[in-house]
Specification:
Keywords: Transferase. By secondary structure, the protein is of the alpha+beta class. The protein has helices at 12-29, 33-37, 87-101, 116-124; strands at 2-7, 47-53, 56-65, 70-78, 106-112, 128-130, 142-148. The longest helix has 18 residues, at 12-29. It is globular and about 40 Å long. The mean pLDDT is 90.
């Protein structure tokens, strides 16, 4: 049974999952990891979601304001033991709903070109490619996407 818990960045399960995510990204990003890591601090994120599968922390994600109308999706991760079970899709839908409840009309995100599964998930969920924004502008290793929220 999958349950989704709204929490904050000091949640111990979130912190543990982020350690797994950072280790995974360090391998995926290679030499670029330190650059990206500086933009993935979680100490002040107030909208965090942790997914539990039968009581075990299976995945996480977060949203934070990008501007007054736009929310940014951050730190999406599903533990390898829980992949291909719909956890990421459920989390993404819930985070989008939460953002809409908070009054945001658009969601943006950045992922790496090597994150093929993530790009597939976001595309399937209706995200479209956009010009790389902010600190990701001009980076060939980044893929930025956006979606209008309902």
């Amino acid at each position: 049974m999958l349950t989704l818990e709204r929490t904050h960045s000091d949640n111990e399960d979130f912190i543990d999952l982020i350690k797994h995510l950072d280790a995974y990204l360090k391998v995926q990003d290679g030499e670029d990891h330190d650059f990206y890591a500086q933009y993935n601090k979680v100490d002040a994120i107030r909208w965090v979601l942790v997914a539990y599968s039968n009581g075990v922390a299976a995945g996480c994600g977060a949203i934070k304001p990008y501007n007054e109308q736009t929310i940014e999706l951050k730190r999406m991760f599903v533990h390898p033991d829980h992949r291909s079970k719909g956890v990421a899709q459920a989390m993404l839908q819930h985070l989008e709903q939460w953002a809409a409840e908070e009054g945001f009309t658009t969601c943006v995100l950045e992922t790496g070109v090597k994150q093929v599964e993530a790009i597939r998930l976001y595309t399937k969920a209706g995200y479209e490619l956009m010009d790389n924004y902010g600190q990701y502008a001009g980076l060939a290793t980044s893929v930025c996407m956006k979606k209008a929220l309902k």
